[in-house]
Write a structure and sequence with these properties.
Length: about 375
């Protein structure tokens, strides 16, 4: 078995697995192999079965350490990607031939899987899926994430299938196009609507440079999307320092890749508009999130000219659909803003929010949804 596995890995094809090649590698006479296997095909099937079992064990080990449905689903995805990255030849072999008879999935495990899956997809479909243990694990964890409200998916089978296809495609593409600037497997992140309560479906630029200190290569085929949140009503001295920090941060993002920068802002007075202007100064594009229809009326009158000018220059405006401004509307807008961003800039002093929807709440939301947060706050500065 070990010799056959090594031949598969070295050659990348099961045609290299012959009795003569195995015997030569092990240092035995070819006829002695017949005591264990009748044909090379049986040996390959045994390796496939062993590989499937290894994948299932890796998924089960990873998810056992998670303490929530969402974390189990993310653990599934990370373990699946890691398995494919570490064993690309064996992973490809799993899909090169039908599942062999006499698979490692015992009748007891199949019955157990059917019991778990039947409430999700019905007994007939459950019986068809049960032998596919790795996919069954993914399907169950998608369903659990839907059940406890951490996933906004509507159909577990459709969602699990799409997620599986995405994972499978990433593994095979990386193996087939090694010269592409893929991020290292250790840095792969899975951001899926299946595992996130309110984020939109993953966009192609989710696997790419995340910021100046990112481990990902500084290449991009899609714009870098950065959101802003932060304290208002800062003193003149703190404002001056914060403006400088924002301008430096925006300049650093503008240097990533060649597809440009998109800034996402609610255009409140303070950091929102300082950021928006910095983005436009870097020839970036501005998108605006409006908390409510009467939002402008609730902003300071002196701020209206700046608000109107920047809103006019925005390439896209997102709406929460709410009529009245207030803490709930501001938090809804902040969540929508985070959902549009690859990274969040936070002008934050590190203290708890003074009211619902404050900067600390937005930072917490972003971190909970795996959006990197870059804190901008002058050393030693305080708020009034």
């Amino acid at each position: 078995m070990t010799a056959a596995r090594e031949l598969l890995i070295e050659s990348g094809t099961d045609s290299a697995v012959t009795l003569r090649a195995i015997a030569r590698k092990v240092g035995i006479a070819p006829p002695s192999i017949y005591a264990h296997f009748d044909t090379p095909d049986q040996i390959v099937e045994a390796v496939v079965t062993e590989t499937r079992s290894l994948l299932v064990r890796q998924l089960e080990t990873a998810r056992a350490e998670a303490d929530s449905a969402r974390e189990r689903l993310l653990a599934d995805c990370r373990a699946y990607l890691a398995f494919g990255a570490e064993r690309p030849e064996l992973y490809a072999l799993l899909f090169s031939r039908p599942r062999p008879r006499g698979s490692s999935t015992t009748e007891e495990r199949v019955d157990q899987a059917v019991r778990h899956l039947a409430p999700i997809v019905g007994e007939t479909v459950a019986s068809q899926l049960a032998p596919a243990e790795a996919f069954s694990i993914l399907l169950r964890d998608v369903a659990d994430a839907m059940h406890d409200g951490t996933s906004r998916a509507e159909d577990p089978l459709t969602t699990a299938t799409a997620l599986w296809a995405a994972l499978h495609g990433l593994i095979l593409l990386r193996a087939r196009i090694p010269r592409f600037p893929w991020p290292p497997p250790a840095h792969w992140r899975t951001r899926s609507s299946a595992a996130s309560p309110s984020r939109p479906a993953p966009r192609p630029h989710d696997v790419r440079a995340r910021g100046p200190d990112s481990p990902f290569p500084r290449r991009s085929f899609h714009p870098m999307r950065v959101g802003i949140t932060g304290h208002r009503g800062l003193s003149a001295e703190v404002e001056r320092k914060v403006r400088a920090l924002i301008e430096a941060a925006v300049t650093s993002y503008a240097g990533i890749g060649n597809a440009g920068l998109v800034g996402v802002s609610c255009l409140a007075d303070g950091p929102d508009v300082w950021f928006a202007r910095a983005v436009l100064d870097q020839a970036g594009r501005l998108e605006v999130v409006l908390p409510a229809r009467q939002y402008r009326a609730d902003l300071p009158t002196w701020h209206h000219p700046a608000y109107d000018d920047l809103l006019h220059r925005a390439t896209r405006v997102h709406h929460t659909g709410l009529d009245t401004s207030g803490p709930d509307a501001y938090m809804a807008a902040s969540e929508l803003l985070v959902d549009q961003a690859d990274e969040l800039l936070a002008v934050w002093d590190g203290h708890p929010a003074r009211g619902h929807g404050g900067t600390a709440d937005v930072v917490t939301y972003a971190r909970r949804h795996d959006v990197p947060v870059r804190i901008l706050w002058p050393e030693g500065a305080t708020r009034d």
